[in-house]
Amino acid sequence: MGEGRVIRNVVCPFCGCCCDDIELTVENNAIVNARNACALSQAKFESAREERALRPKERADGSFAETDYERAIRHSAEILAEAKYPLLWGWSCTSCESQRVGVELAEEVGGVLDNTTSMCHGPGLLAVHDVGESTCTLGEVRHRADLIIYWGCNPVHAHPRHMRRYTAQSEGRFRKGRGERKMIVVDVRNTATARMADEFVRIEPNGDYEALAAIRTCLKGEGLEQEVIAGLPSTRFEKLADELIDCEFGVLFFGLGLTMSKGKSRNIDAALSLVRDLNSRTKFLAMPMRGHFNVTGANEVFAWQTGYPFAIDFSQGYPRYNPGDTTGVDIASRGDCDAALVVASDPISNFPLEAAKGLASVPIITIDPHETPTTNASEVALPSAMVGIEAGGTAYRMDGVPLTLSKVLEPPEGVMQDTEILSAILREVRNVRGGR
Amino acid sequence: MISNGIVVDPANDIDCEVKDIAIRGGKIVEGVSPSAKVIDAREMLVMPGGVDIHSHIAGSKTNAARMLRPEDHSRDFERKSALTRSGVGHSIPSTFTTGYRYARMGYTTVIEPATPPLKARHTHGELNDIPMIDKACFPLFGNNWHVMEFLARGDVEGCAAYVAWVLRSTKGYAIKIVNPGGVEAWHWGGNIGGLDWEVPHFNLTPREIIRGLCRANQMLKLPHAIHVHPNNLGKPGNFSNTIKTMDCVRDIAQDGRAAIHIAHCQFTSFKGEDWSTLRSGAEEVADYVNRNRHVTIDMGQIIFTATTTMTADGPFEYILHRLQGRKWYNADIEAETGAGIVPVVYKRKNFVNATQWAIGLELALLVKDPWRIYMTTDHPNGGPFTAYPRVVSWLMSKRAREGAMRRMNQSAIRKANLPSLNREYSFAEIAMATRAATARALGLKDKGHIGEGADADVAIYRINPKEVDPSNDYRAVRKAMRRAAYVIKEGKVVVKDGEVVRAIVGRTYWVDARAPEAIEARCRGEVSKRFQEYYTVQAENYIIDEDYLARSAPVSPGGGRR
Amino acid sequence: MKAIVLTGRSLAQGRAKERKFSEEYMLASTACEVDPDDLSSLGIQAGQNVRLVNGRGSVVLRAVLSSQAPHRGMVFVAYGPWANVLMDPESDGTGMPTLKGIEVEIQPAPGEEVLELKDLLRGYGLKGG
After folding, report:
1. Is the same domain home to A115 and A126?
2. What predicted TM-score, i.e. pTM, was given to this entire model?
3. Do residues A202 and A253 share a domain?
4. Most buried of A38, A70, B545, C54 (most Cβ within 10 A)?
């Protein structure tokens, strides 16, 4: 791998946009340029070698020392085989092929299989169970949308190419550019995305449910009784309702501003119900802004193999689903699990502290390309290849379109792929069990 | 060697004959050595393995339905066993459970009939995870931008080359058309109400789409006819549009081949002006099918249970949601098609549902040629596929039908034709409707029969067709067909007494379609230029490699394996 | 001063999140975006440290001038281990802890240091590798 070569049409493994037009220049097994890549994408591609875990490590006699994969896998298998209620967490930053092994492993050890959805757009899925959803693929937005709403999300920071590739700044068959579209941003602060909007609606924190309910009320031709709703004069919502009805094709993108604020799944319920109601007047669709490049894939694979998209409890020998009870943060903070396997995720950093402590109080096995607070808190840490750069596989975009990730670099010497590591652990768990 | 079984193999003119079936190397052969393993099939019914021509088992909308409806499967689950994976069932089973449940009933091949090309990779991901059965999927073409533009220009050859490219790229088996033009109209919130309406912005009609794709199908010599879900599905009075749809390709039909297959015909055989005047249009539809050999249909039978409707016919699902108020899922797919999902409960005492139930059976009983009418429930739209044995009992027994009808809305039953129909299906006709005829319609030459050279996919049921009288003893038939005594797949016993004894991975069939090279070359340029404009993925990323399929089984057009 | 904390993604945090022990990540995750009028009320300048306290815990962050003002009474901190000291794991039966709209008390914290990640973790008894 001496001279530079250019690899085209690479799918970016960062956010739910999964842009598939990245052009990478590779020299000496490193990425020296990433064309068409946003700042987040570039950072991931170009820093692929930094802070890498290079050798498996295991905790023994009070120290956390390097070991080899064989011992690490055996140790991991013993922990999981012995555990009565292990939590298998993460999954959103790895390939569908790995996720499939994950399901089999969780079933084998009778554990709980949960992905980062439960801390992200899980409330959205809970709302979908209740009211359904009217959605589309991103190309539909590009071709037809004359009204785009970003509610409780900030794509400039979290999905930087979203607007140019798919929405307000894109060019479609029926809408030629920015001038033919209107963009409304609803948020509690004047974000970078809000500054690009034709209209910015600033609501009070935790006021989303009332705001959505107010618009729905106006849509149904009822008057609003209060003068102030979510910190705004109620006339503002009458005007918004009119704008929404007036469009030919509207799309509501929503983010963690809705899922994480007071009301959680009820906020999404209100948003999806609004979109559903709007369909009696015009064409309207909704889409969650999925953060990770394959969290959608984790939902898809889990659902097709078990019937449920996350929070799947196998402890009774069959899939059971009860978010709030079988979800990762709840299990960790209640101290219900007695071991954990973490794949391509950093819950010690991402969980509320109390839940992180709960997780850290049990033996953790982590499979991750990097050194993280979670790998450092683990009993066994297994380094893995970076999916989408050093290992291929399938990933699903935020709108459910499946794409193929590329392998453009060799992983660091000796580092295995997630799928291989998980398969080896599964085999070893069966050996350990069989030996009993 | 399956010895002394009572064989029903209509494709080879065998009807309840005691006969040995010899198997070697995964195929039916003329004879095997005396040291071969023997299955004693004395007094048991031996048939080819079931071939289901239309069942929504895999893909983006099936999965969206699973996610929409955890309540559908929380009470119907299967535990992990030494040989089988755990899962959930009822109307939208998880993938492993789907395979096991089909196999337990003696089915060995199932078609997923509606695949959006942009998400075909998802369909194959799921098909890879459905064990036990062979599979294929039908990509959707009836609202596809490239297709509509080629046909609006009258360029049928270009359209054929594009269709071939999509079939190869998405590893699809046949041309599926759902509410042609209507789903594109739905992308603006509208719909199409008849064959000669104009598709907004595209300058052509559903008639032109259907005819054009029918011609393309013929040019490419695809093994199955165009598989069509007509406009106006679910609308009272739609039977006339269904007949017009069948008729719109009559003049271009080729001898000896079906030119068009109408899917789940029950849903498009409604007479009447509105729900209160709903009647069965089965007589008229069946009459047309009887007089025109270029048409095949499948039933789409209703089962009285809670189930899930799911279809690419987005506008229809919106209408159903507005009618019933149940939760509604919709997913429009750029430049191609759409999907809609709405839970439904079919009730015996409901006038409309009881009429629908009668329509499905009337179609099956009134169409005379058993090679052209197939048994389906359009799973899960009419009901879960696990109800097939029940449908078999209704087809074979007037008593069973009468028993069922006694509990139904009597006003609907009085107005239906069904009570006066005496026909009862024989075992041979059941074999045709569930395997022999479907395999033939699909052009799967080694399926649906157990003559020499066929795939060794065999179902053995614990029932003696020479002794049992299905007309009276329909319960025994139902029981036997629910749990096969033996199921053999590729020559290996995979099910015994209704339990999986060997978990296997089946094949995924697809057609390696090709248009003449000159036409393909011309099209390549046009398609790739417009691909960038139409889609938000690169053409390169749209194509699925053959090794993505767990077991790829390409079929050459014009017959034969590659 | 009472305030509401919103946590979320930021470009800087996103760029650095694959390198948790980097200085870039720490800078991105310990920045507390404050409305300029709130900075005045607190009597501090941008770049000075503040302590955020609530029933769950307390953490020292670096106040920065918000570019998304006005949002008096509200501060923004990127997701991460520092912000998580204040977060409530209670998911209200949904699986989702409440990570936005958390009430805190903000005080100037002159002379107090923002902890490095390893020190932060060790302080909570989390094994440091």
Report:
1. no
2. 0.97
3. yes
4. A38
Query: Given A257, A288, A319, which residue is the final one in a domain?
Result: A288
- Picking from A318, A400, A401, the nearest residue to B78 by CB comes out as A318
Pairing of strands A132-136, A112-115: unpaired
DSSP lists the bridge partners of residue B460 as: B46, B486
Where in the sequence is the domain holding A416, given as residue range(s)? 57-119+293-434
Interface test with A, best of B191, B308, B327, B536 (most A CBs within 10 A): B536
For residues A75 and A92, membership in a common domain is answered with: yes
Q: Does A92 share its domain with A230?
A: no
User: Residue A402: which of B79, B125, B321 has the nearest Cβ?
Assistant: B125
Q: CA-to-CA distance for B527 and B163, rounded, in angstroms?
A: 11
Class level of CATH domain C2-123? mainly beta
CB contact under 8 A, B125 and A394: yes
Collapse the DSSP code of B387 into the 3-class scheme (helix H, G, I; strand E, B; otherwise coil) and give the result. helix
Q: Are A348 and C81 within 8 A, CB to CB? A: yes
The answer on A383 and A299 residing in a single domain is yes
| Chain C residues lying within 8 Å of A51, measured CB to CB | 18-22
Asked whether residue A51 is domain-assigned, the answer is: no
Domain membership of residue A268 (yes or no) is: yes
Yes or no: say if C89 and A352 are a contact pair by the CB < 8 Å rule.
yes
Beta strand A249-254 pairing with A283-288:
parallel
3-state SS class at A34: strand
- Is B51-427 in CATH node 3.20.20? yes
Per-residue pLDDT of chain B (562 residues; tens, 9 = 90+): 999 999 999 999 999 999 999 999 999 999 999 899 999 999 999 999 999 999 999 999 999 999 999 999 889 999 999 999 999 999 999 999 999 999 999 999 999 999 999 999 999 999 999 999 999 999 999 999 999 999 999 999 999 999 999 999 999 999 999 999 999 999 999 999 999 999 999 999 999 999 999 999 999 999 999 999 999 999 999 999 999 999 999 999 998 889 999 999 999 999 999 999 999 999 999 999 999 999 999 999 999 999 999 999 999 999 999 999 999 999 999 999 999 999 999 999 999 999 999 999 999 999 999 999 999 999 999 999 999 999 999 999 999 999 999 999 999 999 999 999 999 999 999 999 999 999 999 999 999 999 999 999 999 999 999 999 999 999 999 999 999 999 999 999 999 999 999 999 999 999 999 999 999 999 988 888 889 899 999 998 899 999 999 999 999 997 543 3
Chain C nearest CA to A415, separation (Å): 17
Are both A267 and A134 inside the same structural domain? yes
> Distance between terminal CA atoms of chain A?
48
Does B334 sit within 8 Å of A136, measured CB to CB?
A: yes
Question: Is A115 inside a domain boundary?
Answer: yes
Residue type, B48: P
Nearest CA in chain B to A165: B536
- Can you give the pLDDT at residue B561? 39
- In eight-state DSSP terms, residue C70 is -
Same domain, A151 and A12: no
CB of A339 within 8 A of CB of A80? yes
Task: In whole angstroms, give the CA distance from residue B281 to residue B362.
Answer: 9
How far does B87 lie from chain A, in Å, by closest CA?
A: 5
Contact B535 A139 (CB under 8 A): yes
Q: Specify the number of domains making up chain A.
A: 3
Nearest by Cα to A314 from B102, C94, B88? B88
Q: Is A349 helix (H, G, I), strand (E, B) or coil?
A: helix
Among A288, A303, A332, the domain boundary falls at A288
Check: CB of residue A329 under 8 Å from CB of residue C91: yes
